Amino acid sequence: MPNNNNLDIPRAYEDAEFVSEHLGFLPIDILDKLYNAGNIACYKALEGLKPYLSMCSQLQQDKKQQLLDKAFTLFEAHLEVLIDKTFNKFQQYFLDSILYIPHDQPIILEHYKDLDLTLTEDHIDLIDAELEEARNSVISQKAFNHWIKKEEKRLDRSLRIQEEYKRQLEFMSSLSNEYKVPQLDDAVQGVAGDLDKLQTQVERRLDEVFKQGILDNLETNDIRRNYLREVIQRHIEKPTSIDIP
User: Fold this and answer.
1) DSSP 179
2) Based on the domain organization, do 54 and 148 belong to the same domain?
3) Are 175 and 211 in contact (CB under 8 A)?
4) Is residue 230 part of a domain?
5) Are residue 44 and residue 18 in the same domain, yes or no?
6) Are the CB atoms for 242 and 199 separated by under 8 Å?
7) Around Cβ 36, how many Cβ atoms within 10 Å?
8) Residue 67 burial by Cβ neighbours in a 10 Å radius (0-12, 13-18, 19+)
9) Structural domains of the chain, count
10) pLDDT at 1
11) Is residue 192 part of a domain?
12) Once rounded to an integer, what is the mean pLDDT over residues 58-65?
């Protein structure tokens, strides 16, 4: 139901906010327009003053122009400082005196009329619940932001490591190309091929030895020769090979 004690409602806003809501515009907008208009008027006057002084002077044109340019540069800087100081005082007076609305005046804004502004326990509970929900949302967002920053640092560190590996590989590749170093895969394949050839030749020679019966003519009581015969025989029966990836 409507509240009949609207005149007793304390002002909820600061002075500038209350004035803005009451008048329907921002006081700072008026001040900006006044400041801009004052600056335009001053600069228009300066634009007319310079040719007037040039016309009144009896000096030579070059010297006269040089003196006027130098003087007007200093004069404009001094004028800008003076305008700012003067306008700051006017701005304070404008807000404190012209647009000031006393606190003791029973002013009710148009859109506040016939509104029930009574604050109940239910309203307080609702506000507390919404504040708690907003607080939890902020905490969750902060935790998520912390995780994002931590993950960003981890990815940056990993990226720097990958860049270092890339740099080292490029350096090694440049050295390999510069000094004609063969590729590792080609070198391994070459060694494996040589080993296969060597194994084939050894097996061929051993086969000839056995066919000619050279080992059978050796002394049978020589333990070392018997051991070597067994090792060679096992090697022939179970040949080894190298797997090339």
Assistant:
1) T
2) no
3) no
4) yes
5) yes
6) no
7) 10
8) middle
9) 3
10) 38
11) no
12) 81
Q: Could you tell me if 46 and 149 lie in one domain?
A: no
- Structure token digits, residue 13: 């806003």
Q: At what angle do helices 223-237 and 184-212 cross, to 10 degrees?
A: 120
Residues 171 and 96 in one domain: no
The structure tokens listed for 217 are: 């003519």
Sign of the four-CA dihedral 10, 14, 19, 20: negative
> The tokens of 150 are what?
């931590």
CA distances from 21 to 13, 30, 117 (A): 9, 15, 17
- Does some domain include residue 62? yes
Token pair of 73, please? 């540069």
Nearest to 113 by CA among 11, 203, 2: 2
Domain extent at residue 221: 201-237
Take residue 200 and report the two structure tokens written for it.
């084939």
Angle 81-82-84 from CA coordinates, rounded to 5°: 65
132-189 confidence digits (pLDDT tens): 999 988 998 888 888 898 888 888 898 899 888 888 888 877 877 777 766 666 666 7
Residue 191 lies in a domain: no
Question: Residue 164 corresponds to which amino acid?
Answer: E
Task: For residues 56 and 137, state if they share a domain.
Answer: no
**Among candidate residues 102, 117, 132, the one where a domain is terminated:** 117
Alpha-carbon span 20 to 18, nearest angstrom: 5
3-state class percentages of the chain: helix first, strand second, coil last, to nearest 5: 75, 0, 25
pLDDT tens string 81-140? 999 999 999 988 988 888 777 776 677 777 777 777 777 888 888 999 999 999 988 998
Calpha distance 134→130 (Å, rounded): 6
153 and 221 both lie in a single domain: no
Contact 53, 68 (CB under 8 A): yes
* Residue ending a domain, choose from 97, 117, 137: 117
